[in-house]
Structures are given as C-alpha cells and as structure tokens.
Structures
1.
Amino acid sequence: MSSENIHLFNTLTRSKERFVPIEKGHVRMYTCGPTVYDYSHIGNMRAFLFEDLLKRWLEYRGFKVTHVMNLTDVDDRTIKAARSQGIPIKQHTERFIQAFFEDIAILNIEKADIFPKATDHIPGMVALVKKLLDKGYAYRSEDGSIYFNISKFKDYGKLAKIQVGKLKAGARVKVDEYEKEQASDFVLWKAWDPDDGDVFWETEIGKGRPGWHIECSTMSMKYLGETFDIHCGGVDNLFPHHENEIAQSEAATGKKFVNYWLHNEHLLVEGKKMAKRLGNYFTVRDLTAKGYDPVAIRYLMMSTHYRQQLNFTFEGLDAAKKTLDRLTNFMHRLLEANGTAGGDDIQQLMEKMQKGFEEAMDDDLNISIALAHVFDFVRDVNNLLDSNLVSREQALEIHNLMLRFDKALGVIGEVYKEEKLPKDAEELISRREEARKAKDWKTADQIREQLKTMGIVIEDTAQGVRWRTEKH
Ligand SMILES: [Zn+2]
C-alpha cells in the first residue's frame, strides 16, 4: 500500500500539494542529469542527493518509482570542452559519464532505471521539432536554425512566473543558457556552424544538432509518457530550461507535461557562491582526496532541507562525520545489548519516533524535524542502555527500525558495508570455531593472532563469536 499523505512543494503553483500519482502506486519521475563535459561539482551533487532522498522516500512509502535521468552528451559546453582537448566529443563525454557513475556510487545515490543519452535520441528530437513546425509553434531563421516562438504559446512563463507581454517581439537566443530578463524565442535545432566541427547530424530538418531543452522534452516523454508525475532539478534549471521544456512539450501534445515540479536551492561553500577563481569549487573527488568520508558528504548535503540554501563548510563536514559516528556507535551498542526489558517505555519511544519521523518526511521531506526525532530517540535509548534496561529482543527491534529508516536516508548501511568481513577472515573464523569445538586451543589461538594482524579482533561471548575491526 502506498501512502496518500505525502505533500510536496510544487513550483508550478508555489504551494504544498498532496501528492497523487497518475497511476495508483506508481510514480514516474524525471530528473535532469549531468552535462558530461567535466566532473560534477558538489552543487550538482546536491540536486542528485535531493532527488535520491525524494525517490527513496516515495519507495519507503510503498510507491514503485520509475526514474529517468538523462545524460547531456551534446550541447554548447560538451562541444567546447571536447574541441579544446582536440578529441572527438564521444571520447570526451564517455570519460565523464564513467566518472559520474563512480561519483553517484560513492555517495550511495540509487541508480535511475534509465539513463538515456541525448546522442542516442536525435531522431526523436527531430520528430518533435517537426511537429512544432507543423503546428506553427516553431520557425526557421536565416541561418537554418529552428526557433520556438514563445508568443504563440500562451502559457509561456507559467513556471518561472514571468510576463512575456513586455518582451520585444521576435528577439531570439541561440545559446542554451540565459537569464529570465532575456526571455525570447529559443533555439530548438541549431544549424551547423564551423564552431561545431564534426558534431552534427544530417536530418530531414537540416544539418545540425539539437538545442539543450528539446533533449529533455524528448527523452522524458519517450520513457514516461506525454504527462508524467514529477520533474526535478536545481533551481538554476527552472529558467530557461524547465520553462522551455514545458513550452515545447505542451505545444506539441496539447496536454499538461508534468504535474509536480520540484526544485532544490543553491549550494554555497563557506558562505560564498562556488567559483573556481575563489578557490571554493569542489568536486566529490576533491573532497575524498582530502580524506573526507563520502557518507559524511552525503549526510551533510541531505540534512539541510532541499528548499533552503545549503552552506557547505568543512566544519559542517566534520560535524556530519561525528554525527554519523554517533549513529553507528548506537547501532553497535544495540547489537551488544543484553539487559532486562525496561517496560513499555521502549515501545512507546519507538512508536513516537516512527510517527514523528514519517510525518516530517511526508511534509515535503522535512528532514531536519525527521532527524531531530531520530536523535531524541537515540539519546533516550542510550540512557536506557546505560542502565542496562534494554533486552536483546528490544534492541534488535530498534536496530531493525533504524535500518528501515536508513532505506530512506542511505547513511548507516553504508558504514556497515565498509565493515563487512573479508572472505578469508570469514574462513579463518569458522576454522577457529572448529578448532575450539575440537578443544584444539593452540590452533584457535594461532588463528586469533593471524586475524589480529589483519586488523580483526574477535571475542568469544555467550552469544557466540563476535568480531570488530581494529581502528588504525
Ligand atoms: Zn533537463
């Protein structure tokens, strides 16, 4: 059963709305993916982490989610980057597609179901442009490029809340990115010019390449249908990218394109807008190279509400690491608990925390309130653990509840994963068990020493053998 209680802030209406997918129990979601001309920076990653939290929360609440994230492998920036390297565009973008997959894996971001590449969908884009020409929403300019006529689409500006009436008629913009104030007819198809080098397609609408916006309209509708549930992206994509996606798609189909638009706010680094020249520009690999834990990066970026500006600081990153340590210590303590049951208290605490956590997350992913419930609970249970008032059964129940939440948060399980025993250590432990059963103490001690050199300490307890890794 999926939940009927999730409320999400819809940029289209600027209000929180109850989330109801088109098909009961099934969410179709499109998120603008990376432009693979360089490594993604942490500002890009903030968007991907927000989208991951949203998707995980929908799954936690019982929805099946079909998630499509595009890879922009041809646009102004990819062409420029490949040309400056003097290599074919494909070679350049493939390298950064691989890097992107590595980065999302290290941040424990769930993979989309489909990662369509723009260059694999040129015929679909051509068909969409043709449809817009046929319907009179598009026209060809002197150089052969094809533009969308925004004065023909009466709803133009409905997402970014801009009035088109004041614009100069017929003004055109050929670059992919521009400001709200420059709203004008935008390019759907760019006729080849020498700056594009060997990047072009010979098609029935001419020799050239697609504009950036038509790529997303084509790929989202291909995989999710002409109307789908959720479209996300960073607030910087709201205009012109998403505004133009709506114009192209709705003009072509005559149907509403997307029901819920969600945008995450900007990321600042040490209080300033990230810029290479300010020395505060970071990719995920910059941070891991400095020795920072990727799970702490994930936690830090996720723990600020997505519609608030996030100030990324190194102090914050250290604090995130400490918080994670507190959580994992708590999980370890639970596994070791073996006290006397402390009455109904624990059941009540668990119910209160679960209710608080779920209600907060249902309320437009109110993560700070949700986490506050978790940490109040951790504190209370730690107090009970101190007094040995948590039984083994209760502790395991709490442990399972924490892991359930972690399906949405994606931070605790990761730390556990790192602590998995290497295969050869597993074998050694079972060989030692056999030796102990046979009362061969000498062999058992030898194996214990051998494990110790591998950084694994074992203890024999009433519940059986237990191991932990020795911190260096
Ligand atoms: Zn897009």
2.
Amino acid sequence: MEVLEKRSIDFNRTGFSDEELVNIYTKLVRPRLIEERMLILLRQGKITKWFSGWGQEGVSVGTTYAMNRDEYILPMHRNLGVFTSRDIPLRKLFAQFQGKLSGFTKGRDRSFHFGTQEYNLVGMISHLGPQLGIADGIALASKIKKEKKATLVFTGDGGASEGDFHESLNVASVWDLPVIFAVENNCWGLSTPSVEQFKCKQFIDKGIGYGMEAVQVNGNNILEVITAVRKITAEIRENPKPVLLELMTFRMRGHEEASGTKYYPEGLQDEWVKFDPISNFELFLKEEGILTDELTTTIRESIKAEIVDEFEIAYQEEAVPVNMETELCDIYAPFTQEVITPNSDNKTEKRFIDAIQDGLRQSLEKYSELVIMGQDIAEYGGAFKVTEGFVDQFGKERIRNTPICESAIVGAGLGLSIAGMKAIVEMQFADFVTCGFNQIVNNLAKLHWRWGEKADVVIRMPTGAGSAAGPFHSQSNEAWFFHTPGLKIVYPSSVEDAKGLLNAAIEDPNPVMFFEHKNLYRSLKGEISDDYYTVEIGKAKTVRSGDDVTIITYGMGVHWATEIVAKHPEISAEIVDLRTLLPLDTEAIYAAVRKTGKVIVLHEDCMTGGIGGELVALINENCFNDLDAPVKRVASIDTPVPFDAHLEQQFLPKGRFEIALLEMVKY
Ligand SMILES: Cc1ncc(C[n+]2csc(CCOP(=O)(O)OP(=O)(O)O)c2C)c(N)n1
C-alpha cells in the first residue's frame, strides 16, 4: 500500500463520530488488502482473472456504507468494496472467484458475475450496460410498493457509452424512479481514454438532458461519497426520482491484470498515487488523533489474517462436482405447473385477441404484483388494442406506457421480478425485440442457471406475416430464441390455447417468449371458458388424427395444414400443433412420426436455421427406423419478408406445402 507523507485530499468529518470513522477506515482498507493478496494468488495461478478496483475503494465502500442494508446495489467489475462492505463472508467470495460450489454460481460464472438476494446485490453480466435497466425495475417495484427505498446501480464511464445507459436514465427520469446512477468515472475504458469515449466535459453535464439532478463528487474522498449518497437517498426515498452521481476516480492498475498499463501516459499513475483514497484517509485520521500507528497495524493485521484463513478454506474445498443432470436442471427455476380447469361450464365465443385480453385481465386480477409494460399500451390500448380498457381497471402504475426503450424495459421487467413482482413486456411488434435482445438472451435466459434467481417475465410477441406489412413488421423470429437455453417459447394457434397458455406463461416463474400471430387476432374465433384456466406448457396437441402422413407444425402452420388437408379428403393426415417450442414435447413428436412413417415439418419462419431443421435432426436420430420417407421441411423462403402481397404469398410456405403433401403421400 502506498505510504504518503502529505495529504492531497481534504476531508470534512462533520457528522461522523470517531468510532464511525474507524469503522469506515476498516471497511475501506479491507478490499485493498484482499487485492494485495489477490495479486500474489494470481501470480501463483490460484486465481485466474482479476479486475482491480485499486484506488477506487472510496467509491465502492462509500456508496455501500451510505445505502441501507435492505436496499439493492448493482455493482460492476471493480466493486469488490461493495461486496465486502455488505459483509459477505470472505470464504464465500473466494469460493466464487475460484469456481467452487460454495460460491454463488456453482462454478458457472466468474468473479463478480453473480447476485445474491441475501445481500441485496445484483451482479453484472459482461455486457456492462444491461445492469442499468434492471435497477429501473427494482426501483419501480419499491415505488409501487411504497417502500421508500433507493436503488444504486454502477456504470463505468466507458460502459455509459452503451445505449442501455441512455435508455435506462430516460426511463427512470420519465417514471420518477428512485435510482442513483453511479458513474464511476475512472477516466479510462480498457485502453480508451475518456476523450475517445465521449465528447462532453463531464457526466453531470448530461443530467439536464435527462431532466435529472446530477451531482459530482471526488470518488477518492470517502466521506464526501458517503455524505452525498446519504443526502440523495434521504431525498429520493421520500420523493422518488433518479439522480446521476458522477464519482471522479482513477483506475490505478490495468483493465485486468493480464492487460498491463502501457497505454497510460508516463507519470499519470504516479500523479494519482497522491490521491490514493486509503492513504489520504489514514493520514487524515492520524492527524485527527483518531488512528494511531498501533491501531492501524492491529486493524490491518486482523484483516490480513482473516483473508489468509478464509482463502485457505475456499482453496481446500474440492473442485465443483461435474453432474450433467444438475447442469441441465438448473436452466429453469423449479416450477411444477398445476393445470387449472375452469370453475364452470360457462363459455363464450371469442376471437383470438379477446382470448389474450381475457387471459391478461384475469391474470392481472389474480396477481396484484403483475405489471404490464409496453409502448402505447395504456390509454391507447396498444397497437393491436389488446390492453384496451385495462388502465381504467388496473391503473397506470400496472399498465405502463413505456418510452421506446426495449432494452431498458426488458431489463426493468427483470428488475421487477428480482424485487418479487411479475412482469409482462409487450413488444409492439415481435420484430422490435432485436432492441431488447441482449437482455433476453443474456440476462433473462441465463439468470437462474448462473445464480439461482428466477426471471419471472413474459415477453409478448405479436408476430408473423400475411398482412403486407413488409420486412420489419412481419418476421417470425422464434428460432433466435429457440437456440437460447433458459427461455421457454410458447406459440398458441387456437383461441382456447391462447388464453390458457398465456395464463400458464404468466404463472411460470421462468422467462417465456409468448408468440401471438397477428393475423389470427381478429380472424380466428372459438368458444372458450369465461373462467380462468391454464393449458400445460411443454405439451403438443394432436389437432387432427390420421394414418398416411404426419404434419408437425405450430402457429399459422396449423391453420394452413388444416385448410390444405381439408381440400384432400383422400389423404389421412395427422396434424400436430407443437404449442410450446421450448421445451419441446419430443415424446409427442416421436409418437406422431411413428404412427405414419412420413413426416412434413411446416413453419412460417424461413427455412435455413429454422426450428424445422432441429426437428428433422431429432426425428432422424430417434425415429430413423420408423421412417418410410425422408423428412420434408416446408418453410418460408430465405429472404426478408417482402411488402407486396403477391411477393409475400410467394415468400410464405402455404402453396409449397400442398405440393409437398401430395408428393409425400405418393412416396
Ligand atoms: C458490450 C461490451 N463491449 C465490450 C466489452 C469489453 N469490455 C469490458 S470492460 C471494458 C471497459 C469498460 O470501461 P468502463 O465502463 O469505463 O469501466 P472500467 O473498466 O474502466 O471500470 C470493455 C471494453 C464488454 N464487456 N461488453
């Protein structure tokens, strides 16, 4: 640790007792001593990667010290001091760093990539920015529940260049969410200095653009950090609103230990040594007569001994057991669906869209903690009017119009879930999910497997072509998500299933992509129960029984197949509606294949990389001996969805399906 002769930071100790100052010092020095040890362990190969927060401890420790213990903090990769200041036992932290079972992720994710409800911490994913939207959701939950709690989320100055920063600040500002956006401005992002990262002079200059109060503090002055965060939290707990807090500091070591610091201009690090947060504070406390050399040594030696002992315990722990079943099982949060049957025989004929509306309304009545978010979904009722009238019944807190910020809103959905609520996010069109893609495939999907937390979010996806809406309002993009372990994909084709499966998706604590074909909204009708009911997720349905050929399909494909088969009474076709694409009902698929030995897989999505390819592979691997013909895929052509109705009809597979069906029967 740097020893300074002269102090370069002025501290104001007003409001801090001697005892408290010693306590703060003890917390401040702790992460530094761990880091000193880490560097040795790194050289010994006992730790792999390490992102250093050396010189930035004032930020991590000061902010955490000022927050209440039951308030959430969302730290980043240099915030060891957040974790230590929440008093996580060191053996557990070390076990996490070493990938041991008693860490937080069963060896599945590294360093600070974990969260823990026990300590009200939500760690990052590598992508940096997505943290910020989650904080919005947590803050929204506490605002709705009137808990008078603040949430603090970190970003680096580099990570703040990501779109997530803009979206999350914007949402928090529009919704008056009690979040502190703590920009840890250490002047560098890997080798990139601030001047190559952003053009404004300082982050607080951005506050006005977001309509947000912005405060700048010296992040190396722990008392200034604590005082500022205390002042902000006292205010925003009472009057919820976000604050941009810029903490000026410097990254003393390289980006990570292996990457070095050659890009730093000569002398820069030496200059910052003078502003070391710990040495300066220590000098100050000695000047004040609060710390003596003896007390300093006692504090340090006791922490060092604890580090050595605790590290050894974690080090001695055996390597994480390798068990295939556990790996696969942990993909989803444990949940056994109990299928709910209607209370009465009362039925009404409804359109597909009404069934979805019915399901949403009854789920909102059932779960007071359920919130729906989407663009124009409140008074306007949504682009397709699915949520029409909901504001009157459930209010604007639960039926939330959102800014056009898909990533922050999906993140906010996850934040709501982490804070014990349930969320539905309506994509205005399934096509726009690309803007929230990262949150879905990297945060929602991986969360439970990484640190055992559920992601109780349903993403509603108005999908599909057929209305001459062109390449950005017509796509079938379920295959993007099919490839992502941890998600469930539900895709109803009937009115009855639309309601029952939607209710089931909302019940399920796992992230569900719920596809609703737009062209079925108003064209499809059916009699369904007026009561709340659910349909089992993960179960395919035989729509039509037959012996000549099996058609495996879902969504609009079910209707195309039904229509074409009806034109050919001479063909006895079995039609299977998958209904759930993830997890797949493989048993039902294999049974239907074995029944006829001839199979067509039909879907609206493009051919290449579509779900059909996976189905064919599974059928070949598991039913080869039962096949009487090569399995045939029929799908849309491999182009974007064209606008002109004639081109669109050529694009879609319906016409080609009829030909394939006749050929298959003849084979
Ligand atoms: C989306 C994304 N792009 C790039 C990276 C690689 N990366 C990791 S940290 C980092 C620098 C981040 O800088 P900053 O946010 O200022 O935080 P600091 O490391 O300085 O604390 C980069 C480029 C990443 N993890 N995620």
